[in-house]
Amino acid sequence: MGFSTVITTLLLATGFLGFSSAVPTYQNSSDTGSQASSWWFAQIEREGKAVYAPEGYKVFRNVKDFGAVGDGITDDSDAINAAMGHGDGGVRCYLNCDSRTSTPAIAYFPPGTYLVSKPLIPLYYTHMVGDIVSPPTLKASANFTGIAVIDANPYDNFGNNAWTNQNNFFRQVRNFVIDLTAQPFTTGTGIHWQVAQATSLQNMIFNMRTDGGTANAQQGVFIENGSGGFLTDLTFNGGKYGMFIGSQQFTARSLTFNDCDTAIFLNWDWLWTFHGLAINRCRVGINMANGGSSGAQTVGSMLLLDSEVANTQIGILTAHDPASTWTNGSLILDNVDMSSTPIAIQNDITEATILAGNARIASWAQGRTSTGTGPSQAIQGSIPDIQRPASLVDSEGRFVTRSKPQYAEYLASAFLRAKDNGCAGDGVTDDTAAIQALFNSATPDQIVYFDHGAYIITDTIQVPKNIKIVGEIWPLLLASGDANFKDQNNPKPMFRVGEPGDVGNVEMIDLMIETKGPQPGAILMEWNIAGTKPGDAGLWDVHFRIGGTVGTDLQLDKCAKTPEVETEPNPECLGAWMLTHLTEQSSGYFENVWWWVSDHELDIQGWGQINIYNGRGVLIESTKGAWFWGTASEHSVLYNYQFNRAKDVFLGHIQTETAYMQGNPDALVPFTVNAAYNDPDFAAYCAAHSIQADRCPRTWGLRAIDSTDILLYGAGMYSFFDNYAQECVGLNNCQDHMTSLEGETSVQFFGVSTKAAVSMITIDGEPAALDSENRNSFCATLITFAV
């Protein structure tokens, strides 16, 4: 989630883009199109049930069952929108509905070419999934009218979105070709992707016109604001812009741009991390110069890693002025090959060459830099080569990446379905024993499949090594019961992944992990496994969500915020003890994972703010290599990310937010300090290191104790409230400290942005980087910080 009152550049859409009133109805047929693929996703038996939806509600929808033809001739717009909007009694979340988790939907597209003349609108909590064996094409007709082929957040005629942009969660679009070539070159957008956390685009190709010269206005991805998000494995051919984008924060990797005028127009951001870009034959690689120089440049920071810009006139356009006191336009290049691009970086205002091209750029930075001693310094130039631990890189020296497995080579017969193996998934039945038996029975060549549902777990489940686990649109796995997860003095894991010392493969994909009611002694996941090789053990699109949704019993009706009265934590509104613990001998790969303690209600109308008290976010003690791509950890009481004697950890963009209610009460309650896990002791710390009278005991965004070789590329760590009041946001003093480095700790931080913490980074209790010295467009930003 992001700051609700920030105003960003808005490019208004053309008219309201709603569903047609004359739409096909569900046929419940065995259309041969659904049998056209051998992919397991098309063939597996579907018993998933949304247990909090009306009886008969369908989670899985094949668009051909709603009348879509996919022949490239028939207009399939209404049929596809009917598939995504289908629900008895209009229960899917659209108009006058800011969010709803009880009615998820998968819209599956068999192979084919689907002609569309109006936007396809995936409603809240929708997965649009094309066939991976033969990805379908969504082709805009010559007379297409609307903002984009796919519109993830429609505007009405007054400029109002269907959903609040920074709360537009829980969406996926994957495995499609989007074709704009039949449209006039003066118009056309592939996808309007105005989204927030727990969202992703994966494995997509955008084909656009290459003619028209400067009149070509086509673009693949359009993002005007939001609070995302994750993009991966996208290819853009032609067009004016591959992507025209702006958001609070985002992660994008493995993107290819061919023959675009400008590959990426970065309109604004607080931070954006790019990895693995391949930009070919474009006029401009990345334009981040919007707004002009000094404090007007709208891009806060950008990080570009392990990328290539080839046969392109200008690699990067910027308007950053190193003489300015503002840090807008902060930039890192790390291992970027511009051997065939003559100008690597150009000043968009003066047209002066800042960095010549025709070379590989090892490490280069612009912005402000600090080593923790004295004020930060302006920099615009080469920096010492960034040293990467060998355990974190592949054979070519690039940071390890691995896209979410989709198991294209597997047939449905390889899957062990939970509901076919004794699990009820009804939100009532205790499924602990059945899930354990299911895991124990799985062989390495099989895949455990959780049909959508709500699975109650009342004791620790041992996840063995060499297992694959996939969920159907985030089945709910809930820590529950009145015994095993109640004692915060004796915390206990719900999922124990591997035994200490285990080496092997674990893949967990598309799962939602929660608590049912207060479980203040639950460690939701203890991660012991180390991958056989980098990336073998990991989580992809697995989210930890505490409270705020139906079925959790931690909702607005009992946990509403109470800023107007002195507040003691409500025992009925406690979450978990810790969300995830990476133990010493582990390694792990975590991509697009959101550890979120709900700050507001998602299901009860009104969607008001709530007080949920969750002890700790992510504790990382791993020493064998860990990778975090596009992760966020928000609103825990003590810390969001903590590194304790950790070693060799890569973080490619993290986002944190301080618990909103803090100040009433503060971080001293309700969780007691547990020295065995090296918890922060705010009582002792703040007695010695307070800056203001009463704003020291607040959630640590990041805390590192005796940890080495922690590499962080992009961090947005925000404090938006003091007891829900926001006067402190403009004054940048909602809390004293945001990041704590303690003991024998060595870090390399790049693109660190904080909001409303007086001290951005603190070393052994002493401020080492101040907000006031590093002001950016909204945050304070350091482009490099190393100790």
Write a structural description.
Among the domains are: 1-260, 3 Solenoid (Pectate Lyase C-like), CATH 2.160.20.10; 409-622, 3 Solenoid (Pectate Lyase C-like). It is 5% helix and 40% strand. A hairpin with a 2-residue loop joins strand 50 (757-763) and strand 51 (766-770). It is globular, with a radius of gyration of 25 Å. The two termini are 31 Å apart. It comes from Plectosphaerella plurivora. GO terms for molecular function: polygalacturonase activity. Keywords: Signal.
The CATH superfamily of the domain at 1-260 is identified as Single-stranded right-handed beta-helix, Pectin lyase-like
Oligomer: single chain
Distance between the termini: 31 Å
- Sheet with the most strands, sense and barrel status: 40 strands, mixed
How many β-strand stretches?
52
CATH class of the domain at 1-260: Mainly Beta
Average pLDDT metric = 96
Just name the CATH architecture of the domain at 1-260: 3 Solenoid
Radius of gyration from CA coordinates: 25 Å
Reported by name, the CATH topology of the domain at 1-260 is Pectate Lyase C-like
Shape: globular
Q: Provide the β-strand percentage band.
A: 35-45%
Tally of helical runs: 6
Low-confidence stretches: 4-26, 28-35
Overall helicity: under 10%
Overall structural class, as computed from helix and strand content, comes to: mainly beta
Topology (SSEs and partners):
Elements lengths: L39 H4 L16 E3 L8 E5 L1 H9 L19 E5 L3 E4 L9 E5 L6 E4 L9 E2 L19 E9 L9 E4 L6 E9 L11 E5 L6 E8 L3 E18 L3 E14 L2 E3 L3 E4 L13 E10 L3 E5 L11 E9 L4 E5 L5 E4 L2 E12 L6 E6 L32 E3 L8 E5 L1 H10 L5 E4 L3 E4 L3 E3 L3 E5 L4 E4 L12 E6 L5 E2 L1 E4 L2 E4 L3 E9 L2 E2 L5 E4 L2 E4 L9 H4 L16 E7 L5 E4 L2 E4 L18 E5 L5 E9 L4 E6 L2 E11 L24 H8 L10 E6 L2 E11 L8 H5 L3 E8 L4 E9 L1 E7 L2 E5 L9 E7 L1
Parallel strand pairs: 1-3, 2-4, 3-5, 4-6, 5-8, 6-8, 7-9, 8-10, 9-11, 10-12, 11-13, 12-13, 13-14, 13-15, 14-16, 14-17, 15-17, 16-18, 17-19, 18-20, 22-52, 24-26, 25-27, 26-29, 27-30, 28-31, 29-33, 30-34, 31-35, 32-36, 33-37, 34-38, 35-39, 37-40, 38-41, 39-42, 40-43, 41-43, 42-44, 43-45, ...
Antiparallel strand pairs: 19-22, 20-21, 22-23, 49-52, 50-51
